[in-house]
Specification:
The protein is α/β, with parallel strands linked by helices. It is built from 9 helices and 8 strands. It starts with 9 loop residues before the first strand and ends with a helix. Bound molecules: 2-phosphoglycolic acid.
Length: about 260
């Protein structure tokens, strides 16, 4: 029997994006995030700070409740890539996970083939890849399903069955990211089932080991509804994760639910 990844522990990824503007503010936000994490024992919290802050936050953190993720890393081991950071470098800086193919990176030119190389590279570097997928628009005839399955197929192309338990998929419809409103829970559940089915079609029952997250306008109000009774194991949170009090409320709402 294959055990499903779905369990009672929710995963919350705090994607700080290009915030805050100074390390001093980052330190303060991290202190607040730590307090929120300590009060929420049933939630696994991952902080994805800007690459520049990662090392200092990670080496001075003594707790066990938080793990770190990089927001991005280059697929190649080393080389002439001005401005890039490598998977090995973010790992050495303290990251245990790495976001791959976030919609904002795809918008800057990251391709499906890049995500394939990065997911494989992350697994090789013993980092957990968080492969981000999501459609830009929804069509009446369901084109968004084909779009997402194309992103999944590419991202998983070099992933072995034995590595599936170490892969996370974050479904983020591009139109919900940064918007006022998350998507309808029903539509999200439908897509989560579709994502699961796509992976299971490719790998068999082992596909149940992949964790699935939802992201896009997540807040304290919609978070419990998104997690309730669904195939979703956690949330990828942007704006709310950079506001100490909103993040505390979010985490406590999930903890209560
Ligand atoms: P948001 O961003 O929560 O601000 O909508 C989510 C994301 O892009 O990960």
């Amino acid at each position: 029997m294959v055990q499903s990844s779905h369990n009672m522990r929710a995963l919350v990824v705090a994607n700080w994006k290009m915030h805050p503007q100074t390390f001093r503010q980052a330190r303060a936000l991290f202190e607040a995030t730590k307090k929120a994490a300590e009060a929420a024992s049933s939630i696994d919290i991952i902080v994805a700070p800007p690459a520049l802050y990662l090392h200092e936050l990670a080496i001075t953190y003594r707790g066990k409740r938080i793990r770190f993720a990089a927001q991005h890393a280059h697929w190649d081991g080393a080389g002439a890539y001005t401005g890039e950071v490598s998977l090995a470098q973010v790992k050495d800086a303290g990251a245990r996970l790495v976001l791959i193919g976030h919609a904002e990176r795809r918008e800057m030119g990251e391709s499906n083939d890049d995500t394939r190389k990065k997911v494989a590279g992350a697994l090789k570097a013993k980092l957990t890849p968080i492969l981000c997928v999501g459609e830009k628009v929804r069509g009446a005839s369901g084109e968004h399903f084909g779009f997402v399955s194309g992103q999944l197929r590419a991202g998983f192309d070099d992933v072995a069955l034995s590595a599936l338990a170490r892969v996370v998929v974050a479904y983020e419809p591009v139109w919900a990211i940064g918007s006022d409103r998350a998507m309808q829970p029903r539509d999200m559940h439908e897509m989560a089932i579709f994502i699961r089915k796509t992976i299971v079609d490719q790998y068999g029952a082992g596909g149940h080991r992949v964790k699935i997250l939802y992201g896009g306008a997540v807040d304290a109000e919609n978070a419990p509804v998104m997690l309730e009774g669904s195939d979703v194991d956690g949330l990828l949170v942007g704006r709310v994760s950079t506001d100490a009090s909103e993040f505390r409320q979010l985490v406590s709402a999930i903890q209560k639910a």
